[in-house]
Amino acid sequence: MLLKMGFEQISLISIISHLVFIAITWWALQALNLEYFIRKGRVVEARLLLILLTIVIASTVSNFFLDYLLWSQQIP
Q1: pTM of the full predicted structure?
Q2: How far apart, in whole angstroms, are the C-alpha atoms of residue 47 and residue 65?
Q3: Residue 30 in contact with residue 53, Cβ under 8 Å?
Q4: Maximum pairwise Cα distance, the chain
Q5: How many alpha carbons fall within 13 Å on the CB side of residue 17?
Q6: How many angstroms separate the CA atoms of 59 and 50, rounded?
Q7: How far apart (Å, rounded) are the C-alpha atoms in residues 53 and 51?
Q8: How many Å apart are CA 76 and CA 16, to the nearest integer?
Q9: What parts of the sequence cross the membrane (predicted)?
Q10: CA 2: distance to chain centroid?
Q11: What tens digit of pLDDT does each residue of 9-65 get?
């Protein structure tokens, strides 16, 4: 499937995959109680850390998903 698609379609699937996994990761990280690890008065830094952590985790999972999808298409 992916091997027969053009670059535009693969790019669109990659963008959608990354955005979906960012949303899922953000939702999942909201369950954590990070107040224990954050100093008082550092709300902006805590939010930035949460956003960066979300992007790192979601990007890793999305890349794994896309690689797995590509590899499964290469099996004869």
Answers
A1: 0.80
A2: 27
A3: no
A4: 57
A5: 18
A6: 14
A7: 5
A8: 27
A9: 12-29, 49-71
A10: 20
A11: 888 999 999 999 999 999 999 988 877 777 888 888 888 999 999 999 999 999 999
